[in-house]
């Protein structure tokens, strides 16, 4: 047993200050999450209820198994844009009849559930998650199709949404559509491309063009029911496989479809699993203490082992190469019984030794078919004459090569800084981790705001002096302040989450639970490593 012995003094003033700063960030997040939960707002939610309909979240709650968790993904999509935060769709992983499923629910209280550019990006991201992890997809459909004022950004790339559904089906991953209301134009193709379709008598309306469009296009007079009603599709067109009496009945039928899938996980079960149960040993330290580990000033280092001790089973962690490349902590652990290899930045900077250590560790994880967890707090790879001559480029490239070609599942959590190529080496979004989450304390950019502003100032000064001019110090200071403010605003988790550069900003105390759900979802697909990496420069 290699139990981590925590050195955190929870009674220290610094710890209390860290907790206060983290709680302040969580309060800011809570305000945004409240907006997401509000959907289209009180007026439109009330109008929706008066029609005898459940909200998107109520439909999900009824669909998933009682008292089971729902891991919502990308809830802040569209933050900072002209569109409602959440992008008019609720997505996440939930357990239905004992089977983990990817659930996509249009929110009709937000512009009729129409798809704007952020809706599209969010759905495409969830389709990737379903494909990579072999998760059955359940679409709770009530959508007016594309948001017409932004059709130029939605129409052309939007075709991939339907292509993805057919490819999931071709890969043997079940797709199920429960149609709760109007599903027009692009919204009609979701049931059209799904393996199983449930429609509700008197409620579901599925057509490529509604009566007004048909009238304009062909001169034909028709009503909703004969053009696209549930009974017509169940009895005439054959698009509807099941005819439900009401919303609750549609959910019941949907659950029965999942129960009959005979869906089996293809990945490993948690170590120690027996008779469908696994004895899990909780960490030896309280998750509440995670609020006080990361300082608000990310220039102040912290020990990632303190995070690991509060996340992994029994706080048990076998560290790999602890004396070599100490700025990167690597080792083996379990989370909810699932084996993981962990790479966690210890002092921020990645040197040549850390890069070589990471490369070897990633290869070992692939040999043992072990998923990898990356805990980010890096300012990037070290710069300077000594380090360039020592081969930092080829050693950093070696680490990035290993991350790029590794085939075991990766999960990334940004807990502190994630700057420069260090973001890449630690498996940032561009490197296709199965899941990527951020703490409210995280920041990510090409470099820190102060450093970036300073670099631009140096380049600007050099250009001015080369022209024979004189630097205006006041203007230079103003430019630096403006750039610093811009980069700070663009580096914070809510902004990055709004851009879908992560799958959600999470409360640090929920980290273990979130990782457990992700590892369980990952195990729906085979977990297989590789020995096929690119050429490593030695």
TrEMBL record:
InterPro entries listed in its UniProt record: AcCoA_carboxyl_beta, ClpP/crotonase-like_dom_sf, COA_CT_C, COA_CT_N, MCCB/AccD1-like
Keyword tags: Ligase
Ranges of residues in domain CoA carboxyltransferase N-terminal: 22-273
Start and end residues of each CoA carboxyltransferase C-terminal domain: 286-529
SUPFAM superfamilies with a match to the protein in the record: ClpP/crotonase
Pfam families: Carboxyl_trans
GO molecular function, one term: ligase activity
EC numbers: 6.-.-.-
Record bears the keyword Chloroplast: no
Matching PANTHER family: ACETYL, PROPIONYL, PYRUVATE, AND GLUTACONYL CARBOXYLASE-RELATED (PTHR22855), METHYLCROTONOYL-COA CARBOXYLASE (PTHR22855:SF46)
Membership in a protein family: Belongs to the AccD/PCCB family.
Name of this chain's protein: Acyl-CoA carboxylase subunit beta
